Structures are given as C-alpha cells and as structure tokens.
C-alpha cells in the first residue's frame, strides 16, 4: 500500500477515568465519528499545567476515523470532554490492512439517520 492510499486517521486523547473514557468512546462511535476506540490505561502523564508540573493517572483513547470526519470528531470530542484543554492529536495512517481501512471509512460515513 502506498502512503497516499488511505484516508484513515488515528486521533489520540486522554481522560481522567475509565468511566469517562468509555462514555466518550460510546458517544463518538454512536455518532459514527469513530469506527472504533481503544482504551488503554491507566497511564501516567507528566505535564505542566497552570505553572506547575503535575503527575496524573489518565486513560488514553485511540480513535479510528476517516479524514472526512476528523473535523467533526475533533469538535465533538472537545465539546464532550471534561478537560478545559483536552488533548486532540490527529495522526496519519500511512498503510494497513485494506479491508480494515475500508471498514473504518464505511463505519464513519455520514448518513441521514445518524446523530
């Protein structure tokens, strides 16, 4: 597969609890903004916030989507997120298993019946 052969994207975010990670995942999959979300955690995050270094336990979400849905997914993720400034990183997918990549696109296509 050539690097330009896929429009799949992975969006990363973190949240402060397993319950919140699952809630966000369900909202985004139900809205067809993500085909799949994998939740990993807990992970330890070290970051500077409001002038101090913090170390927090978080859950990381790996959201699989299509380029055509990235803007809508990002907007909904920020609107639904409990953090003031949530992490939203969009990573290109440069290749992969063709049927899986097609499934990601199919599952995130807009439809008149989707929320």
Q: What would your notes on this structure say?
A:
There is one protein chain. The mean pLDDT is 93. It is built from three helices and four strands. The longest helix is centred in the first third of the chain and has 13 residues, at 18-30. It has a four-stranded antiparallel beta sheet with strand order 2-3-1-4. With 115 residues, it is α+β, with helices and mostly antiparallel strands. It is elongated, with a radius of gyration of 15 Å.
Summarize the entry for a quick read.
With 115 residues, the chain is of the alpha+beta class. It has helices at residues 18-30, 70-80, 98-107; strands at 8-15, 36-49, 52-66, 89-92.
């Amino acid at each position: 597969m050539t690097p330009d052969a896929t429009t799949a994207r992975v969006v990363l975010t973190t949240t402060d609890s397993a319950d919140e990670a699952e809630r966000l995942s369900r909202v985004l999959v139900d809205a067809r903004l993500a085909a799949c979300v994998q939740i990993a955690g807990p992970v330890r995050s070290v970051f500077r916030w409001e002038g101090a270094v913090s170390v927090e336990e978080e859950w990381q979400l790996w959201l699989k989507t299509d380029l055509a849905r990235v803007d809508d997914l990002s907007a909904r993720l920020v609107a639904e997120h409990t953090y003031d400034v949530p992490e939203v990183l969009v990573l290109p997918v440069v290749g992969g298993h063709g049927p899986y990549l097609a499934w990601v696109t199919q599952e995130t296509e807009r439809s008149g019946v989707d929320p």
